[in-house]
Design a protein that fits this description.
The chain is mainly alpha-helical. The protein folds into two domains: about 220 residues, Rossmann fold (3-Layer(aba) Sandwich), CATH 3.40.50.620; about 90 residues, Tyrosyl-Transfer RNA Synthetase (Orthogonal Bundle), CATH 1.10.240.10. Helix content is about 55%, strand content about 5%. It contains 14 helices and five strands. Strands 1-2-3 form a three-stranded parallel beta sheet. A two-stranded parallel ribbon has the order 4-5. Strand 1, helix 1 and strand 2 form a beta-alpha-beta unit. Helix 4 runs parallel beside helix 14. It is globular. The mean pLDDT is about 95. The structure holds tryptophanyl-5'AMP (TYM). The site of tryptophanyl-5'AMP (TYM) has 25 residues, from strand 1, helix 1 and helix 7.
């Protein structure tokens, strides 16, 4: 085994609705490149999804859809382990243990809980509050060393490192859990809404025009990009000027993310022009990327037996590895297992 294969990659996506270009650029694109070098596990985190209310039939369908999206985007299930979290019960078991390691003060600092719980914190599920300890369990169960995620998950990764360190110290289990490194691509780790360049693109935004979904057809993509907010100026000449125009900056980040062109190359190509040609070309680049993924997802969604076989095989492999780590953890903690 070469040394890169000793690096273990874990990441997850919630089955909470159609995935968007932010999920793709911020996370999935990196999964695809990492699978060739590392030992990878890609999970559909259904236990995380139920921290807010879910319709059971939709949850099931969305879970299949994330599996289909992983495969349609280019993750090879022969190379990487693809599975859903609830199928490997060790995730929930380790989450409980880590809840006892993690401090309430640490969870109180999590900005995503504050955003998601909104004004009615008292009414949020306690699962939503302790969500990051389940995420730490996902990662540490496989002793993952690298975690490709978007920028919004950075704080959860830092918490995971704190939990790992506290566990190692408290139980005098030096280096038992490696401290996982986030893998975050600078420019595309926070894709913003197409309607407001200061807000993150999100599945839960009420406006469908705020995001490009991986399920959008060509016409919808063109319509959304045409309506996307820009600025009342021509395309500037420098990156510094672009940085003051959040919506333009965001479209450039997306354009650069879906093509191999750097941001500065794109700025040079469109500077001094209005945004219509830029938007047309961006739409075409998006359609070129998304159309084949989109039609492959639809094809896979019609083949539930195949998706079931991937989930079954992936879950068995993940379970075998998870059980091994959990047995070590139980022993370290002092649980009797006969
Ligand atoms: P989730 O399902 O919200 O998002 C999946 C991935 O997409 C990234 N992402 C974005 N990246 C760039 N721009 C955006 N606008 C954008 N929106 C979302 C997210 O950062 C994420 O990488 N808690 C996680 C799932 C999870 C997980 C894990 C991740 C559970 N356990 C263990 C890594 C390791 C979440 O809710 O992602």
């Amino acid at each position: 085994m070469n040394s890169a294969k000793n690096k273990i990659v874990f990441s997850g996506v919630q089955p909470s609705g159609d995935l968007h270009i932010g999920n793709y650029l911020g996370a999935i694109k990196n999964f695809i490149t990492m699978q060739h070098e590392y030992d990878c596990l890609f999970c559909v985190v259904d236990l995380h999804a139920i921290t807010v209310k879910q319709d059971p039939a939709e949850l099931k369908n969305n879970t299949y859809e994330v599996v289909a999206t992983y495969i349609a985007s280019g993750i090879d299930p022969e190379k990487s382990i693809i599975f859903n979290q609830s199928n490997v019960s060790c995730h929930a078991e380790l989450a409980w243990i880590l809840n006892c390691v993690c401090r309430i003060g640490w969870l109180n600092r999590m900005t995503q809980f504050k955003e998601k719980a909104g004004h009615d914190k008292e009414n949020a599920s306690s699962g939503l509050f302790s969500y990051p300890t389940l995420m730490a369990a996902d990662i540490l169960l496989y002793k993952a060393t690298h975690v490709p995620v978007g920028n919004d998950q950075k704080q959860h990764l830092e918490l995971t490192r704190d939990i790992a360190q506290k566990f190692n110290n408290d139980f005098k289990a030096k280096d038992f859990f490696p401290l996982p490194e986030p893998f975050i691509d600078k420019d595309i780790s926070r894709i913003m809404s197409l309607r407001n360049g200061l807000e993150k693109m999100s599945k839960s935004d009420e406006s469908d025009y705020s995001r490009i979904s991986l399920m959008d057809d060509g016409e919808t993509i063109r319509k959304k990009i045409k309506k996307a907010k820009t600025a009342d100026v021509l395309m500037p000449e420098t990156e510094k000027e672009v940085n003051n125009l959040p919506e333009v900056n965001n479209l450039l980040n997306i354009f650069s993310g879906v093509t191999k062109k750097s941001k500065i190359e794109l700025i040079n190509a469109y500077s001094g022009k209005n945004f219509s040609g830029f938007k047309e070309n961006l739409s075409e680049a998006l359609v070129e990327l998304i159309s084949p993924i989109n039609s492959e997802i639809s094809k896979l969604m019609d083949d539930r037996n195949y998706l079931d076989s991937i989930i079954k095989k992936g879950s068995e492999k993940a379970n075998e590895r998870a059980l091994k780590t959990l047995a070590e953890i139980y022993d370290i903690i002092g649980f009797i297992k006969r």
